Amino acid sequence: MTPYVDFIYFAILLYPLVPAMALGFFGQLRLWYVLLSTVAMLLLQYGDPFGTGGGAQLGYLAAFAAYEAAVVLLFALLRRRRRAHGPYYAAVVLTLLPLAAVKVYPLLLGLGWLGRLQPAAGLVASPLPTGLVDTFGFLGISYMSFRVLDVIINLQDGLVSFPNAGVLASYVLFFPCASAGPIDRYRRFALDVTRRRTPAEYAMDVDAGIYRVAQGFLYKFILAELIYTHWLAPVGRLYTLPHQIGYMYGYSLYLFFDFAGYSAFAIGISRFFGVHTPENFRAPFLSRNFRDFWNRWFITLSWFLRDHIYMRFVLGATRRRWFKNRYTASYIGYMLTMGAMGFWHGLQLHYIVYGIYQGVMLVAHDFLARFNQRRRLLPDNALTRALSIALTFNLVCFGLLIFSGHLFQ
Fold it and tell me: Where are the domains of the chain?
């Protein structure tokens, strides 16, 4: 059963949510109930109780969880003895190995670099082309792998001495965010899930949770559905230039409302368990440039990659003086970060090109912003800000057209 795609799932959600509210309003909501609810819901989501053919995912999920727990435990024990780069790099590779296998698997089946066109929701929620999840891997492996990676990095940096087993399991497998994010951070999650809230504080969480779930219904089941039915599906059948342009804007709006709807559901359900899952979207189509866009779109992924790839690369290059030009490290960092983002979605050509496109746009923005700062060609006023938003919106939509794969059909 895929989370948040039909109303039956929301009816089933009442079983863990009602006891959670009872415990929360009496100030008794604890980690054990979060973990128990997560295990129960994952058994439902991946265990194929209704005979839809997805039961194999539960076995892959169990194997993944056991494997990643062993990697984290072994690295934590080694890190206690001494801080060394060799075990750290080995732990990073081992952590990402299952995800890499899942990404390569479609190519080994002969789907090629183009893959095949999927529904837009599948591009976001699933790391595999439609139909392959049941064959190898499970829905959400991309998100869970990055959560484990965050724990490994925290151990290496000395921010976490030794992860609590219950907190670690709840963090990696937390069912509201298991399939489609957002990507939380271990230390932030640990503070939330172990904090004891008063009934008044929990009431505020429930109020916020109800609001976000209602927002999710508006975005996903009303706006996204209307856009798909009356705009995206009709223009998607033809490949003339006007239809491609129509598809570009329709897909961009559909993808936002569909994915933002998923995120709103995840954030809202998390609040019922006392977890303040971070935001994933903040009015991304009002961005003035691509740097601003990645502070508004898929925020948890972009900030994860920024902190763990871009910042580490730039700091390392600066300390070791790898480049004479001080901007070279930043530009290469942009390309590495956005390239990793493309590969994270998949190894099909449209994902890779999308990552390169985003990296080029970030480099171009930085270069032109510094050029304009020196020459003072464009003033900062209401007109230039409006033009910047319009230009960024159109360039972003073209990037999402690349991401959709429709341009390559």
Answer: 7-196, 285-408
